[in-house]
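Following up on my earlier thread - several people asked me to post the actual chain instead of describing it. Fair enough. Here it is, all 246 residues.
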Amino acid sequence: MLVVVLVVAGRLITDGVAGVRAADEDAARWLAARREPWLLEVTRWATYLADLWVVVGAGAVLVAITAWWSRGWWMPAGVVALTAGEAAIYEVSNTLVARPRPAVTRLDPGDPMASFPSGHSAASVCLYGGLAYVLHGIARRRAAGPSSERPAAARRGVTIARWLWLPAAVGAAVLPLVVAFCRTYRGMHYASDVVAGLLLGSCWFLAVSVVVLSRAWRTGSPETAGSPETAGCPETASCPETGTSF
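Reply from S.P.:
Thanks for posting it. Predicted structure:
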């Protein structure tokens, strides 16, 4: 569904039917004419927040951590689905739309026919949104009475998550906007490209969170598996701690 929506929207924009192509081109020229040396340096480094290898590396670390902490596969599978699924949707829709990049000086390397949607914007939503979601879920787990082989380490993981999930949530809201600005400021995308990328990332993040990641909390964790409140309790919505999503 996302591929169809993106391809239809992209074709409407590139063919001029959507009525935003001229505004896109004017905005790209306006930004290119107002580049400042200090901001060019800032945006150069900020772009790495959603660079391919940063996303792959951070995703791999998050998969390893969630697999160790949960002793299950729903959380790591959700992280993989977030990054790999977003990349697949981006590649297909990008290839089918084949919109040329802005006709201004482009400051980063990239395929000249890879403008719509913005993969960096979409990847930043999935990566940092997924990180915040996982930390929030871990932070809500019970730190008392775990039955895992490493209860002390598991409890420390919960404590760390409780300190980090709020900053991660702020980052998940802010960093994709920073990346989107960097990509337009550096001449790599039109404004409609990054809007489409943010839409892609948000929709895919929501879908994976509801369908995959939320199951990690319903099927238990090393922090809840052995607690008195959940002992012998079936995996249903009535079970405390494990039956409630967020």
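The chain has eight helices and no strands. That should answer part of your original question.
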